[in-house]
Each structure stands twice: as C-alpha cells, then as structure tokens.
Design goal:
The chain has 508 residues and is an alpha/beta fold. It has helices at residues 15-26, 68-85, 90-106, 108-119, 123-143, 182-194, 208-219, 234-243, 256-266, 291-303, 323-335, 355-370, 402-405, 421-429, 444-453, and strands at 34-36, 39-41, 48-52, 59-64, 150-152, 160-167, 170-174, 197-201, 227-229, 247-253, 272-276, 281-285, 313-319, 374-377, 392-395, 412-418, 436-440, 458-461, 480-481, 494-501.
C-alpha cells in the first residue's frame, strides 16, 4: 500500500499518483482513447476533456470529447458485429465472457487503483467493486448457456407452436461515475451473453475504468465492434443513441430526471428501455432490533462509497423507544470512520466526486438545520479540503426537510423518530422513489409484514449490504424499470418470438 500525499500546488503529480499511473500505463490499462470497431480512436475534431483525481485535483489524463459522429460510427460498428456475434453458439460466447472475467480478476488490484484514482473511493472498497463487477461477467458467462424457449401444446393436431428467445440487437449502455466498473459489467455481461452488441457511454468523470475493462474484453477474444466505448458530449451521444433505429435497447443507471428524458426519447423508435434510477432508501430500526446489528447494518447502508450510491440509506427511521440508545451508538460508530485519500490503508471514507456534490450536501444540511434538525456529529467540509466532507449525523429530522425527501448522495445520516409500525411504513413509502429499503427487527412476523408492505424493489432485513450478481436489482415507482443481475437480468436483452408451424400432419 502507499499513501497519497497532499496535492502539490506547483502542478506536479504526487508520487503515489504518478506511480499508479506509470504501472497502469505499463500494463496497457491506462487508455485515453475511445474504442470504435476494435480500434482506439481520438475525437474526430481533436477535442479532449480532463479526467481529474477528486481527492487531489490532479489531472490524470485527457480523453476524447466525442459526439454525434463518433457515436454514429460506434453504432454502425456494433450493428455489423451483431451479425456474427449473435450467430455464435452460446458456448462460444460463454468462453469469451469467462476469459474476460479471468482477466478482470487477474487485474483486480490494478483496476482498483484506477477506480481510486478517478473516482476517489478507498482502494479496498475499489478492489471490492472490481470483484463485484467481475462476478456479473462470470455469472452471465454461465447464464449464456441457459436461454431456453418453450414448446406450447397446440390446439390443432397439424400445428406445432414454438417460443424462441433471441437477442434484441445493439444496446446503448449509459453508466454513472459512482461504480465505474460494476455498472458497466452489470449491463454488458447479460447483453453479450444474449448475443447483443453494445455501445457504452461511461460518465465523463470516470471513463478510464470503462476503457480499461474494454481493453481486457479485447484481450479476452470478444470480437471487434461487439464492445464500443464513446465519451464526451453527453447530450449528443445520448441523442444519437436514442435516434438511431439500429439501437434497439437503452439501459441506463443514473438520476430520475435523466431517466425520464431517455424514456421519452426512446419512444421515437420504440426501443426497449431499462432504467435504474434514484432512490430515497428508508432504514427502519424497530425497538426490538439488535442494536449492534442495526448500527453495523445502518453504517454500511449509509456510508458505503461516502454515501454516493443509489441504495444508500437516505433516512434512518428509528422507533422512539430505542431512538436515544441507537443515536448514541450510531454516532460513536460514525466517529471511528477515517476520512482521507483512498490509497491510505486505514481510510474508509474518500472524497465526494466534485464540488457540486459538496454544495448539494451543504444546501440540504442548511435546510434541515433551519427547520429544527440537530447536528449530532460532523456537519461541515473536512479539514483535508478539496471535496472531502465530514461523516455527519443529523437528529430530529422530519419529512418536511429536503434531506428526507430527496437523495443527499453524501455522507450525511438523518435520524427520524416514529411510534408505530404503521407510521414507519407510511413514512418509508411517502416518496416517489422505490429502489431499496432496510429493516432491522428480531420479530420474524414483523420482518415479513413490513417487507411486503414496503413499496421498494429491494429490501434488506437485518443487513446493510444487499447487492449481489445472483439477485435481481431494480426499483419500482420512479426508481426505474426492469431488473439487473440474476437470471431475470437476461430477459432485458431478449425478444420473445412465437413460431406457428402448420401442415405438420402431411407427408414430406
């Protein structure tokens, strides 16, 4: 391990950053071009954008600022590759995916460093993301061989009725900055397994991990054009994907506002759409909960990736009989979280992605305190500067505050009180979001009752870490459409075709 020093204001890269960049470059994993048709290319007009380290402000490298023309060529490349990739046997596609998985795991520490450099999360957590992301590729390498159809009993003796499942076609995958590898593999894995080809648009804030993963896909033998990566002008790239009749599916992880625009735009050509959008996750702690389990689970659910995940606990709703005891124990646990640069081994909280994210946290905190919330811990920018923010706990929060109704996407844990089970469910469901929810109780009957009553796609009971490649991930209401991960994630990339064969009773 190595420790990242303070940013050198003379503009020199810190030694640790320079060391990591050098290693990644030597391995061929620090790519700074887009990938179209198996070729690494610059933007056609030569424009570039900087990729910065959010912990230090350092410029890691420049990448192409691509737009409509490059995206059009990437779509054409994917469309051409689809003709052959979709015709391979499931076993052949499976072998390519398995090789890709093996390479991702072989380079998990290198990819982890890359994630820490451009996204800021602690190295241990970043390496964990690589393993998590790679697991989707492994899972779908196996599921590729399990795409089954049906034979339907016919209503007439001279008929045979078949159901086939076929790949939908070219997929446009638009991914966010908070999980720069896992949000890609969760989409691209099932797409490739089904026989689709993809055009990936990673976040302009964290494109390097996507490019490294694409490089490893080439090494794994996934053919040119099956995986393409373009980045830069988000609106131009998005509009081109939406307008193209060759793109038959859009998959997106990000904000609800952008998801709505993509959904409307996809209507132009009636594309399939899957959306994993924002959340407002409630974490309900009942007075019969095991305090230690509830604190540990709530801590994990809230402060993973410094609060920058769509399933982070956005509201910790605590029954009044246990409120004070839980609050004290929770504050004590949060005090132990170490903030710092991701390459420092003991650090568990990195920076926020940019200053706009910090400003959002500050505005939510100001609104809450002006309406009666109490700062129990933290509540300001960290002394490290840049975009570091102190892990914060707010008490006496209510539903009238912005922080209870909107995602804070930062390391701020709001505590709300409730009296009855019915009230807890009402508070939890009083939102347009419906992605993830958490419940802490030792009452088995209550756990079933509340889990079923919560209007969310995912519920964790006595558990704060709920994501896994083997289970369906997705929300209800305005948190999105469709599911990712598990066998259900395959359905998003398949069309169901019914074949009716007549005249089966005659002689050949």
């Amino acid at each position: 391990m190595f420790t990242l020093s303070l940013w050198d204001f003379n503009g020199q890269m810190s030694m640790a950053t320079q060391s990591a960049v050098s290693t990644l470059s030597d391995l061929g994993l620090l790519r700074s071009q887009g990938l179209i048709g198996g070729k690494w290319v610059q933007a056609y007009d030569g424009k570039t954008i900087q990729v910065n380290n959010p912990a230090t402000g350092e410029v890691i490298t420049n990448v192409p600022c691509m737009g409509r023309k490059e995206t059009t060529d990437a779509i054409s490349s994917a469309s051409e590759a689809f003709k052959t990739w979709s015709k391979l046997t499931a076993n052949e596609r499976s072998k390519c995916l398995r090789k890709w998985y093996d390479l991702l795991i072989a380079h998990k520490e290198d990819l982890g460093k890359l994630i820490t450099l451009e996204q800021g999360k602690p190295l241990k957590e970043a390496i964990g993301e690589v393993t998590y992301g790679a697991n989707f590729i492994e899972f779908y390498a196996e599921e590729a061989k399990r795409i089954y159809g049906d034979i339907i009993p016919a209503t007439l003796t001279d008929r045979r009725l078949f159901v086939l499942k076929q790949p939908v076609g070219v997929v446009g995958a638009i991914t966010p900055w908070n999980f720069p590898l896992a949000m890609i593999t969760r989409k691209v894995g099932p797409a490739l397994a089904c026989g689709c080809t993809v055009v990936i648009k990673p976040s302009e804030l964290t494109p390097l991990t996507a490019l490294a993963a694409a490089e490893l896909s080439i090494q794994a033998g996934i053919p040119p054009g099956a995986v393409n990566v373009v980045m830069g002008n988000a609106s131009e790239i998005g509009d081109t994907l939406l307008e193209s009749s060759q793109v038959r599916k859009i998959t997106f992880t990000g904000s609800t506002a952008v998801g709505k625009k993509l959904m409307a735009g996809a209507a132009q050509t009636v594309k399939k759409v899957s959306l994993e959008l924002g959340g407002n996750a409630p974490c309900i702690v009942f007075d019969d909960a095991d305090i230690d389990v509830a604190v540990k689970g709530s801590l994990a659910a809230k402060f993973r990736n410094s609060g920058q995940t769509c399933v982070c606990a956005n509201r910790i709703i605590v029954q009044e009989g246990i409120y004070e005891k839980f609050a004290n124990a929770f504050v004590s646990a949060v005090k132990k979280l170490e903030v710092g640069y991701g390459f420092t081994e003991s650090v568990s909280q990195g920076p926020l992605i940019n200053d706009a994210a910090v400003q959002k946290v500050e505005s939510f905190l100001q609104d809450a305190t002006s309406k009666g919330a109490k700062v129990l811990l933290g509540g300001k920018r960290h002394s490290l500067g840049m975009t570091f923010y102190e892990p914060t706990v707010l008490g006496e929060v209510n539903n009238e505050m912005l922080i209870a109704s909107q995602e804070v996407f930062g390391p701020v844990a709001p505590l709300l009180r409730f009296k009855t089970e019915e009230e807890a469910i009402h508070i939890a469901n009083d939102t347009n979001a419906g992605l993830a929810a958490y419940v802490f109780t030792t009452n088995v009957q209550r756990s079933w009752r509340v889990s079923e009553a919560l209007e969310y796609g995912i519920v964790g009971v006595n558990e704060g870490i709920i994501s896994t490649e083997v289970a369906p991930f997705g929300g209800v209401k305005q948190s999105g459409l469709g599911r990712e991960g598990s066998k259900y994630g395959m359905d998003e990339y398949l069309e169901v075709k019914y074949v009716c064969m007549g005249n089966m009773g005659g002689n050949a």
